[in-house]
Amino acid sequence: MSTLITGIRELTTNTEGGPLHDAAVVLDGQHFAWVGPAQDAPAADDRIDLAGRAALPGWVDSHTHLVFAGDRTAEFEARMAGRPYRAGGIATTVAATRAASDDELSVNLARHIAEARRQGTTCLETKTGYGLSVEDELRSAKLAAAAADEVTFLGAHLVPADMDAEKYVDLVCGDMLDAVAPYVRWADVFCETGAFDRDQSDRVLRAAKAHGLGLRVHGNQLGEGAGVQLAVEHGAASVDHCTYLTDADIEALASSDTVATVLPACDLSTRQRLAPARALLDAGATVALATNANPGSSYTTSMAFCVATAVLQMGLSVAEAVHAATAGGARALRRDDVGVIRVGARADLQVLDAPSVTHLAYRPGVPLTYAVWRLGRQIKTPMFD
Ligand code: NIG
What we know:
385 residues; 36% helix; Metal-dep_hydrolase_composite; alpha/beta; HutI; TIM Barrel; seven-stranded mixed beta sheet; eight-stranded parallel beta sheet; Urease, subunit C, domain 1; metal-binding; single chain; 15 strands
């Protein structure tokens, strides 16, 4: 069954030549079968007219923590009253997650993924990291693998209160990695004061690499530190947060393949400065934008909010922010089948109830997602139907 979607006033493709105007696409099965000017479009089994709306690749949210239970409203309120954010808050969610049943965790995970998809996210990474025991990390990995596009093992999120740090790193690098490796593509470590230091993070990354996993790093979130340099040295696909960077960090990212993933909703929700995305782009680094959806530091699944913030407060153009939230996320996940509209790519499409992507920043906070296709299937129908 093929579908011709026409009446696209502005089509962001993330391919050479910039956006197309008065464009059309054909979806066939799970892929784009044709992309081009509407006047040249071939016939298809079905036809949908978008009546002058803008379309773009579905968002690629390359950083979320959605296998969790519980709520941290009180911590958020305290933070808004002036208490600083600290990594230790993770322990609250670990306790709630361990106490939850598999069903509770998977329903919560599915609910948040559905929420993200309704807002145009068609490819989503999520992490373990609120289990922190072999058993709880394993079930988190299994639940995530059943629901998300990409799964990351983050056993090295925090040292459990009842464990010695070195012994915990041994466990992460040994039994925990052995157990979760079949269910995950990526491994990550929170390299930060209060979490894992440089040597401990290095051990985790080496062990993950030996298990054949791709690498990611949480780094430079709460202060300058070793995260970025370590990520680059290890050839990690992405280093996420990048809020506190030195000139040397920016230079290292610009001359590497490691993507700098910035998480503006987290920076705002933790009352930190915003990551220097403008400087990263100016230096030549690849930047991704992601939500960091989690109950502690960034409880939003809205990529549109991140895009608007990147434009209004971080100095990116709309085109740069949209690219970072689609092709940038795809690069951070080392995927070339998403975040792009071209023949053969995954048929993931977001339609805005607006004539151009500029409206994402011009009309911040307005829910503009009009329709969404994921893997060729329409998962959100027009909002006014
Ligand atoms: O990316 N930085 C570490 N992990 C999460 C925080 C999770 C939490 O506070 O529960 C983050 O911000």
